[in-house]
Amino acid sequence: MTTGLSELGRRTTEPPISWLMGLALSRPNLISLAAGFTDNESLPVDFTREILHELLRHSKRGRPALQYGPTAGDPELRSLTADRVRELDHGAGARAPKSRYPTDRTIITNGSQQLLYMLTEALCDPGDIVLVEDPTYFVYLGIAQSHGVQCKGLRLEQDGIDLKHLDGTLKRLKRSGELKRVKFLYLVSYFQNPSCLTTSLAKKRAALELLRGYEKAAGHPLYLLEDAAYRELRFEGDDTPSALSLKGAEDRVLYTSTYSKPFATGIRAGYGVLPEEILKVVTRIKGNHDFGTANLVQQVLVRALHSGRYERHLKQLRERYAHKAEVMLGAMRRHFPSDITWPDTRGGLYYWVNVPGAETGLESGLFKAALDAGVFFVPGGLCYADDPARPRPRHEMRISFGAASLRNIRAGVKLLGGVLKSAN
Amino acid sequence: MTTGLSELGRRTTEPPISWLMGLALSRPNLISLAAGFTDNESLPVDFTREILHELLRHSKRGRPALQYGPTAGDPELRSLTADRVRELDHGAGARAPKSRYPTDRTIITNGSQQLLYMLTEALCDPGDIVLVEDPTYFVYLGIAQSHGVQCKGLRLEQDGIDLKHLDGTLKRLKRSGELKRVKFLYLVSYFQNPSCLTTSLAKKRAALELLRGYEKAAGHPLYLLEDAAYRELRFEGDDTPSALSLKGAEDRVLYTSTYSKPFATGIRAGYGVLPEEILKVVTRIKGNHDFGTANLVQQVLVRALHSGRYERHLKQLRERYAHKAEVMLGAMRRHFPSDITWPDTRGGLYYWVNVPGAETGLESGLFKAALDAGVFFVPGGLCYADDPARPRPRHEMRISFGAASLRNIRAGVKLLGGVLKSAN
Q: Which residues of chain A have pLDDT under 50?
């Protein structure tokens, strides 16, 4: 007798990262530089307590926070969110077109993760194609696999995808008759997970134009899905405007981001700004998923944003991550062999480390030696799409300063340095 | 140019109920007896404030509530949930087999809605068949339609589905070669939405056995999906054990229920007890949806259950709904014509009213006259599957005492009574 599972059920296999998470649980003495969790010490416990007290102080006025709300999200949070994205793109008080960031094209979701899922549901059938960065966010690769979607990797440069590679890939897909299967280009555009690179506005503009040029042959819109999850975790320097700021964005850019990482991961709320037609479909899908994100969580965010606590917390958080990144950088410089390299990091939670001499996979000698030494990381290979167009790179590792304490960052990098030296 | 939507995207049409919800928003003076929202006045604002204060009182000990948790749910909440379902089935302190309600077959989700969605994803391909009660929970019909799943309606008797109809339907599907498309039988087994009927344990046992008898021909397990969302909203009398209490349940019963309705709908948390293999797949799917329900919400429930506040609130809530049901009953007896009938209701949020003389659909004269009078309801036809095996019934309406105030229950039923009298 078969299991009776659906095709989606059978395709949704155990992600390799679960094994790493299980490892952390079963051997708590191991130092994990793998987890994408956020910093524990800086969680806004006091702010959240104050906000919840204000929210629920009056037995009567507190009720809306405990009742159902609209499926697309609390109207005030949607409005604050639209304004926030507009201000990020154009500066506070700027006379940027409100119409480009309308509340009614904004949706609140259970983290941006749920929105990535629903966009894939809304747009992709099994056999469809999504273009991704090479490497990319590995959980997105899991969503795509679960839906039977093929991911094609695009090479990365300092300021985002290699546009020639994008053009060449689209040209090749057009020739092979597969262009009609392409639904969108997925970019993690700020402090990318895992590579830490940020996409320039010029590249976003060029990518959008390139995609537009292939739409006639595709027979449908080719969207740019911009995942800005790490946008607010910027240590220094100026922000880059999102693709929403570009001409023609309103019907082609799917913008997703989150309040979970900049505020608190235990409060799962993300959001998106979407073309009208797509928002309509995604809201219906969300109606089937859950009728709307927990209202209590949304009300906490409304108050956090209104009261300025969100900004105050974010400022502290940026300083904290900048410091942790600095500590990790210092430790890498001290303990890693000189042939080990990594791109500079000005935000996010990760360093993306290139290990030229050795493989880093779960089955590799290096990974096993690291485990024996008491430390582990995310093997870089897990972040690459299963794309027959190139061999899967195996010489990188993602190490995170997000969740680890300062002491564990120092100790973990030191242990890893010892392992890298013996592997040389 | 086409829209580029997936098949799921195109199948996910606007549910008729949105129109009703829009109506309530755009004409706030209308009395809604349609909403399935819960009672506003009895929301546990004070309890929740106390719990959150306890949770977040210490800056350090409060952190876990604001951090990510495991995808399947907080371990303590899973354990409390498994124990709770066992106690409901076997009585507190009973020496019921713990092994039949193990924590590791329990999952916490964003309302039970998300679990219904994920079970459909895990088990159903387009063209598959789900057997449902006739009538059934209309949002489930939306989920099924979105996934291209056909629903076949089974006639209801006082104590649940007509077993002869179930057997006949399975026999017919076997003959037509469609039995392999059947994945599960979906029962809303306590104070059913909309019919208010409760399925007896004998019927659950018989249904489970009947399904088992067709498995060989189907080639895969035929599950019983028991949706117990209204189980705890019982006004009086004894609880009925769930199908989990039956022999052979551990690999065939998919049990779903919720903390949202008995505690607070703004805290979106549901749960399930599932066969091991199905739990594994559903947990992976949830990893792709959202990595786990907001931890803050789960921690509130852990404390509510531990401290006894959950039980205290539930007791008050049952008394409140029993009173509101009584008020609605009195008003119906006073104002409805004598040919209007409804089954007795001992729990839940609804009355299911039979209007023999007139149609009740959104386009019907009766519905329009009710709107003109200032009141509206859910037309019964919306709760029936699109099943060519029978004409869609059109002479019922669902009226809810959940969200409406006592004053609006009285006034709404009176207005509706006037409309029903003129329609006669």
A: none
